[in-house]
Amino acid sequence: VQLVESGGGLVQPGGSLRLSCAASGFTFSSYAMSWHRQAPGKERELVATISSTDSSTNYADSVKGRFTISRDNVENTVYLQMSSLKPEETAVYYCNARRRYLRIYDYWGQGTQVTVSS
Fold first, then answer.
1. Are 113 and 92 in contact (CB under 8 A)?
2. Which pLDDT does position 73 carry in this prediction?
3. Can you tell me the distance from the alpha carbon of 3 to that of 97, in angstroms, rounded to the nearest whole number?
4. pLDDT tens digits for 72-83?
5. What are the phi and psi torsion angles at 30 (to 5°)?
6. Mean pLDDT across 79-102
7. What is the pLDDT of residues 17-49, one digit of tens each?
8. Beta strands in the chain (DSSP E)
9. What are the residues whose beta carbons fall under 8 Å from the beta carbon of 56, sequence distance 6 or more?
10. What is the rounded CA–CA span in Å between residue 52 and residue 9?
11. End-to-end distance of the chain based on CA atoms, in angstroms?
């Protein structure tokens, strides 16, 4: 099982970035996918989720209207489009795959650094 995030980098406040998470080694379409982030000295927090069934989405209040999560079940990839980025959103962004079937299956990527700074 692999989740490989990409697309992070340095962006100015107010700028945009698109993160990608390429999945392999499991049935991607059967898993709910999510993005999380962890800033230095802080706990990891949930940013956005997208379901496996109807691709319904949910967002943390702090990113609603600015971030969009989407998935491509052909390319086995989940995306996070981020706009109007703020310095306090500097963090390592992680991709997660989760499924509950008899037991919980839970996989994480290695993370990609997003730095919002002028």
1. yes
2. 96
3. 8
4. 999 999 999 999
5. -90, 0
6. 97
7. 999 999 999 999 999 999 999 999 999 999 999
8. 2-6, 9-11, 17-24, 32-38, 45-50, 57-59, 67-72, 77-82, 91-101, 103-108, 112-116
9. 50
10. 28
11. 37
